[in-house]
Every structure is written in structure tokens, then in C-alpha cells.
Design goal:
Blueprint lengths: L1 H8 L4 H14 L14 E6 L14 H14 L22 E6 L5 H16 L3 E4 L6 H14 L3 E5 L8 H9 L4 E8 L6 H4 L4 E5 L1 H16 L6 E6 L6 H15 L4 E6 L5 H15 L3 E6 L5 H10 L8 E6 L2 H9 L3 E6 L2 H16 L15 E3 L20 H9 L4
Helix pairs in contact: 3-8, 4-13, 5-6, 8-9, 10-11
Family: Belongs to the bacterial solute-binding protein 2 family.
Subcellular location: Cell envelope
Pfam family, one: Peripla_BP_4
């Protein structure tokens, strides 16, 4: 655990934080997506202002805002369909080649599950899959890249959020050796790798981090309208790379839907989640009776936040939570009580296929998806559909299997 914490301080990415929930839920109250701000614990008031929608019309709140939010939640509550528009690829050209997978941390069940899915897809299509076990330390990632270079593999994958900026010397060695590198689950849809990394990697796979925050806000508005989000508490971890982008997306959505809304942003560094989220959330909801929604940007924050709301005597629907990741233990909170209202889930199986699609494309000599957009979806889970994830929930249920058919068609598999 000490190594994991050290890795967080060195720039651990959202993927690690999102999935660390599965580990830390089992050992503490909860667990674990940067900016230039300090990582000290604290809270700030962030006032939102009027904004325009994508169509250019100003949203004034009220019933129109609630209706728009409900429509968005309804659209994202259904079993997702396969929407990826990409050129077909002849993955038979990848057969016999070797993929060397370096996960952000092998000890995390969520990451291990994605790795297992990738291995299954790779081996089913004749690609050798080498797994590099590690505990989440960038020094270990560097050692893995060096090992892959020495073994003369055909592709190195930095899987589930390893920050390539922490291993640039090794990436330069890989490039000099003619070994391409793929980065997954680090960049927001529409974002590109920084300039000092872009020339050192062959491809990347993006995910909808910002959309998760927008959906959390919309869920709260869909339930209680703009009156219910006038005083909202957002919990973040500023030291994690995608966090500020998610929070800004949430604030922008509040401003768009409900111009009079104000969000208090509570920053709790990852290493303090188990000890500081609960007392600070309890203090916030006790001192401000107008807070009806708490929106942690990663759902593992929801476990201590739920305990805090209950301790404040507001655990019977007065204060509710919506968050992101779809961690099974958090989905179970939806099934079991009134505090955890919704979770914006992400499908492990789909992520595994998406990562392997880009990997196959690199191994086969193209065509790659240049912007990394594999169009992996989110699904909103609440009381209406959470039982589709299983009882108790499991990581890969509740999303259907359209992605299997969709990718097989792109790969020329019957």
C-alpha cells in the first residue's frame, strides 16, 4: 500500500484511482482521475454562471433544465449500443506477434480484470500476451519497458493509466528499438497526448471522463430540479490528472442548466480519503441544510461520504450521492439503501476489447484510430436498472454484448 501511495504522489492517473476502489473497499472504508495546484485538503466555493448550450440557446433553469437533464439520463440509462465508426482491420496480420502489457498496477482487481479480457481476446486471435506484474510504481513501469525491449516484443501497452511522462527515457529506448507503445485510459475523449509524449507513442485509447461528471450533475437535476442543486457539494482529488477537467465539466453543466447554482468543491488527496472525506462531508452537510446532493468525482469516495451523510442524520433521502465508475461495491450501495442514488458505470469487458482493437491495428500495420476514440460508453445505474449488474453486482454485467459483435465485424470475424 505504501508503494501505491507513493505512486499516487508521482502523478497516478484516474484509472488507478477509479479502480483502486475495489482493493481499498476490502481493507478500509473506501478507495480510490492533475493540475498545478497543491494537494492539500480543503474546500473552496465555486460559483457557477449562466452559459449557453451546445445549440447556442441560453438555459435558464427551472422545468426546462430538469426536462433536459431527465432526457440525458434516460438516453444513457439503456444498454449501450456499439457506435464506433472505424475502418476495418485485418487482424490476421497481427497473428504470431507479441504484446507486452504493463498495467498501472497488477494488484488492483479492476485493472486485472481488464488485463484478463485483453489477454483472452489477444490469445483467441493468435497474439501472444505477456503480462508484466507490478505494484504501481513508475520505476517498475520503466523496468517493464526495458524488459520488453530486451525481449524484442512487437508492442508495449501502458494499460489503465500509466503516465508516459514518467518513463520518457524508456520510451525513447523503445522507439529507437522500433517497438511501438500504446497508452490506454489516460486521456479524455477529444484530448491528445502532450508534445513530449506524442512522438514517442504509436497510439492511445481515450475515455469519457468529462461526460461522467456531466451525467452526475444531470442525475441530480433530473431528480430535484434546479432547486435541488442550488447548494451542491463536489468532492475531488486535485493531484490526479483528469480531476480538474471533470470538476470543470460539472461546474459548466450546472451553469448551463441552473445559472443560480453554486458548487462547493471539497479537495481531499487520495491518501486522505479513508480519514478525511467522512468528517469533512459530515461537517458540510450538517452546517449547510441546503445541500441535497454530494457528487464525488470517483465512486470510491462515495463509501466514506455515505457514512458521513448517515452520521449527520440525513441518511433517509435528505442528501443523496451520484458518482462515476460502476465499482461493484458502490453499485451494491444503490441496491441496499437510499443515500447512493446513481453511478455512471464503465464496462470492463468493453474496455478490454477497445484496447485490443487499437493494439491489433498497430500490430497489423494499421489503420489505427488516430484520435484514440474507441467510443466506449457510460451507463447510468440507479434503482431502476442496477439489478441488471447482478445481485450482488459484478464488474461486467449490465452492459449487453453489442461490443463483441461490433468489434468482431471490424476484425473480419464471423
Amino acid at each position: 500500500m505504501l508503494q501505491e501511495r507513493n505512486a499516487f504522489h508521482r502523478g497516478r492517473t484516474l484509472a488507478l484511482l477509479a479502480v483502486l476502489a475495489a482493493v481499498m473497499v476490502a481493507v478500509v472504508v473506501g478507495a480510490c482521475g492533475s493540475n498545478d495546484n497543491s494537494g492539500s485538503t480543503g474546500s473552496t466555493a465555486a460559483s457557477t454562471s449562466a452559459a449557453t448550450t451546445g445549440g447556442g440557446s441560453t438555459t435558464t433553469g427551472g422545468g426546462d433544465a430538469q426536462a433536459a437533464a431527465k432526457a440525458n439520463i434516460e438516453a444513457n440509462s439503456k444498454i449501450p449500443q456499439f457506435k464506433l465508426q472505424a475502418e476495418p482491420v485485418d487482424i490476421s496480420k497481427a497473428k504470431g506477434k507479441t504484446l507486452f502489457n504493463i498495467p498501472v498496477a497488477s494488484t488492483i482487481p479492476y485493472v486485472a480484470a481488464v488485463d484478463a479480457q485483453m489477454k483472452k481476446v489477444a490469445q483467441a486471435n493468435g497474439v501472444k500476451f505477456v503480462q508484466f506484474e507490478n505494484e504501481g510504481n513508475p520505476t517498475q513501469w520503466a523496468a517493464g519497458i526495458n524488459q520488453a525491449i530486451n525481449q524484442k516484443v512487437d508492442l508495449i501497452v501502458l494499460q489503465a493509466g500509466n503516465d508516459p511522462q514518467l518513463v520518457i527515457p524508456q520510451l525513447k529506448r523503445a522507439k529507437a528499438a522500433g517497438i511501438p507503445v500504446l497508452v490506454s485510459h489516460l486521456y479524455q475523449n477529444g484530448e491528445s497526448p502532450p508534445a513530449n509524449v506524442a512522438d514517442l507513442i504509436a497510439g492511445y485509447v481515450t475515455v469519457p471522463f468529462h461526460e461522467s461528471g456531466q451525467l452526475s450533475v444531470d442525475y441530480a437535476i433530473s431528480q430535484d430540479g434546479c432547486d435541488g442543486v442550488k447548494q451542491t457539494l463536489i468532492i475531488t482529488a486535485e493531484e490526479v490528472p483528469p480531476s480538474n477537467g471533470i470538476v470543470k465539466a460539472m461546474q459548466d453543466r450546472l451553469a448551463e442548466r441552473c445559472p443560480d447554482a453554486k458548487a462547493q468543491v471539497l479537495n481531499v488527496p487520495v491518501v486522505d480519503w479513508g480519514t478525511k472525506i467522512a468528517p469533512q462531508v459530515q461537517s458540510a452537510v450538517s452546517s449547510n441544510p441546503n445541500i441535497k446532493w454530494v457528487l464525488p468525482i470517483y465512486d470510491s469516495m462515495s463509501i466514506p461520504a455515505s457514512a458521513a451523510i448517515r452520521a449527520a442524520g440525513k441518511g433517509t433521502g435528505q442528501v443523496r450521492i451520484a458518482s462515476y465508475n460502476g465499482t461493484p461495491d458502490v453499485l451494491k450501495l444503490i441496491q441496499d439503501g437510499d443515500i447512493m442514488a446513481a453511478d455512471m458505470g464503465e464496462n470492463i469487458g468493453w474496455l478490454g476489447y477497445a484496447n485490443m482493437d487499437q493494439a491489433f491495428r498497430i500490430l497489423a500495420g494499421g489503420p489505427i484510430i488516430k484520435d484514440g476514440l474507441e467510443d466506449t460508453p457510460l451507463r447510468v445505474f440507479d434503482d431502476s436498472n442496477v439489478d441488471e449488474t447482478g445481485t450482488p453486482p459484478t464488474p461486467d454485467k449490465g452492459y449487453g454484448d453489442a461490443y463483441v459483435t461490433g468489434y468482431n465485424k471490424l476484425w473480419g470475424i464471423g
